[in-house]
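#structure-requests
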Amino acid sequence: NQSNGRWIREMWPTSNETCPAPSYKKSIFNIIEYDGAHPHCWHRDDFTTIGNACMEMNCDLIRPDTKWISPLRINETKWMGVWRQRSCDYYEYTDTELQQCFNTRKVSDIKVEGASIAYFLDQYLQQRVSNLTLFNSSDPEAISVILSSLSLLHQASKEDKLMAEELRARDNVGPRQEYFWVSSFYISSERDTYTVVDRMNQINHLAYDTLTPKGYKMLNVYDMSATFSYDTATQFDGMHIIGPPMKMALTKLFHFLCKDTVEGSRL
């Protein structure tokens, strides 16, 4: 399930009318604050600061002179770009447009499920929806949206047969649910014997083949994250990839959630 797309770098905006000067949201990551009136401006990043937070036990003991840092991470303070498909466009939405989608589709809840990758996704998601109002959950027509990482980084050592059985045992997506899962990222390190990039790709295909008939929808970030696998990984670990791929994962989420309800701006 390849994305058949590519990253397009754009000029860093110099006009405050096009994009207000970036400000940074206080969080564990140095994320440029989302502007609900200018959604495209969110696709800016300062790679010299992104992902420098120490998230795992003892990572702060690593000597700085032992870290390999690419020129992109050393020098790139003004990067702006998006992932574009070759055969179609994604919509991106202002807060007003996304609120219209939530109202029309009666979105009452957005839950994030998984482990560390899900936690990082949620840091970006909360910026994106912080100014929106969810629908009344007691309404019988309200829908719940679930965004999951399936904890794929923790599944690599399982035999395919066991993993497929566990995925098949999941409930089918209900009529008042939208269930999206984020594929494994393109990792550039080896956590253990099994958690390597080729194995993660196998798991992506296994999960896609098993869950799609049950109503689950995959957001493919594997291809998108190959470009930034090391450069925007937290604590330089090559696994917990944030920055542009995570922003595009959420762009995909809202595109597929709202494309038949509200027409946004084409990427």
